[in-house]
Specification:
The structure is a homodimer of 362-residue chains. With 362 residues, chain A is an alpha/beta fold. Helix content of chain A is 28%, strand content 23%. In chain A, the strands form 2 sheets. In chain A, strands 1, 10, 11, 12, 13, 14, 15, 16 and 17 form a 9-stranded mixed beta sheet that branches. In chain A, strands 2-9-8-7-6-5-4-3 form an 8-stranded parallel beta sheet. Chain A is elongated. At the A-B interface, helix 4 and strand 10 of A face helix 4 and strand 10 of B.
Amino acid sequence: METPCLVMDADLMEANLHTLQAAVNRAGKALRPHAKSHRCSRIAHRQVQVGAVGICVAKLREAEVLALSGITDILLTGPVADSTRLQRVPALLERAPHLMLVLDSHETARILHQSLAAHNRSLDILIDLDVGLHRTGIPPCDAVSFARALAAFPTLRLRGIQAYAGQVQHIRAFEERRTASLTCMKEAGQTFESLRRQYPACTIFTGGGTGTFDIDIEIPALTDLQAGSYALMDADYRTVQSRGCLTPTHTFTPPLRLLTTVIGTHHPSHVTVDAGLKTMYRDGASPVPAEPEWSHLSYEWFGDEYGRLLTPPGTRRPRCGDRISLYVSHCDPTVNLFDAFNMIRAGSPAETWPIDLRGCSQ
Amino acid sequence: METPCLVMDADLMEANLHTLQAAVNRAGKALRPHAKSHRCSRIAHRQVQVGAVGICVAKLREAEVLALSGITDILLTGPVADSTRLQRVPALLERAPHLMLVLDSHETARILHQSLAAHNRSLDILIDLDVGLHRTGIPPCDAVSFARALAAFPTLRLRGIQAYAGQVQHIRAFEERRTASLTCMKEAGQTFESLRRQYPACTIFTGGGTGTFDIDIEIPALTDLQAGSYALMDADYRTVQSRGCLTPTHTFTPPLRLLTTVIGTHHPSHVTVDAGLKTMYRDGASPVPAEPEWSHLSYEWFGDEYGRLLTPPGTRRPRCGDRISLYVSHCDPTVNLFDAFNMIRAGSPAETWPIDLRGCSQ
């Protein structure tokens, strides 16, 4: 393996897939994992095999590549806002017959309906609710009137709501995060109940993430969870506290690491490694050495191509050519910097898995 | 053009190539532009056609792809530290006969020599000097003894020194930056003069960057400049002051922009756009709207896939579907997020140029 490169412990990743699926099953909910984190259709297929009801993606091009790989149940969680792209939905439906889109605009609904009608197709849709992030979605109080307006478009089958509280996922303290998430989701739950009474086909209330998985699956109205990072984990999620526990979360053991090589040892204060901004996205907590023998080193950014590992006086120093692996800062945008995961099984290098949704940000 | 995507004004980029080449020519120096910024062999070929003596790259894989495109004069500015990779140098020399490597380690020199000798090849090399960045390189005071040691390896032809003061390129105030750069480069210049007296083939003193181009080309000993960002520019370099001028630099007009679409207008304080962390690398100054009509909007990060443009009360608001282009935060790692530049000529979309060195970080 030529460094810098991504390595993934396949056994730990499998364990994470099973851990969350089991927790969701126990709560009587469904899991619809988000592929925006791993951007890898092979992982998506594993998630479906382990029990997921479908896969979420953020962008239309991600959905198209995932559909090509054979995933048929895809939820596109970001509203598609331009008419050119909406024209591609009927073709995508051919490959992914259980495709769902979210809607937060009457105009988009109108264009989508025209496009579907022209191809004699219909589509499941969810209303995208804004539960405080203020990024996309309509306020919960507008959902019932929006649902009524959607009835004018017979190609659109209203199936429920999406409510994603992205702003609470990384709140460090568990109780604070729990209160914030439950507050956000409460009004969404009430909206869902109102809709369900009027529209019996409304059976989906999807939302949540890795940071709130064990909070959100206790919300009675929620039907499915959209967590993504749990499969890979990263240095930032390691600083988010677990339920009843003041130490970093250990529910999901991080399988993803960035392998780097020491290329400079001329200075007593640090060694230089070959991984910088271009191979680990700087966002949130700093990268952390994964090997216990190097836990006394701390990573600092050192330009586009380099990093430095601070070597405290009197501690063991890496030598030139040594390989050290790091938990990355933020998994989603870091994975997007590479074309493949180098899989590790039982501690040994195995096959590579293509990151085939890399760059599919349109 | 499907958003988010990179657009490049080909005319402005050409102007930047000519502006720097002319400045370097006037100073009697050579230009050896750094391809780590644009990662595009077509731009590298244009730089050579405009007058560059060669092209710099940071990593071996960048050199290999650039050589495949037909560039024969390549300087690899980052030391190659592992023996496996050093074995690939003879094959690279076949394609790029004027390849140069930098060295900062006797052990690397020994392995490189063995590899070259086994293939009956020889190679131009530069001594990598550490002029205060402490990332790679040896202290200038050690250069003469290192040069003497290199004489034991007859396949390595010592051609000069490299001194890159990365730590001073983004100092905002011109005079402060000038003093810092001249201080760093002074000892390197003296070292170069000493080496040149002993080794007549030592004719190259390469260094500098976009932030110090007009400072470094006035250093008598410097022979060539390694600037990279000047071709593309970004929001961060726009905040670096020019000589004798307290406003942002206007020496190089930014040709690179990120085209984004407004996808959400539900909130009075902002609109949501489809470009976030995954399509603009967050590093340094915030992205800035490029169109004068949208200069009253300010960009804020809004997750992996989204951004928001703050809309001050009483100002014109973009509508859903509007396209707005942004000067990106930091060009180098942002370019690495895409597979192509969408070229614009005379204001109209033209061909795409592949970013064929994307992901070549090994």
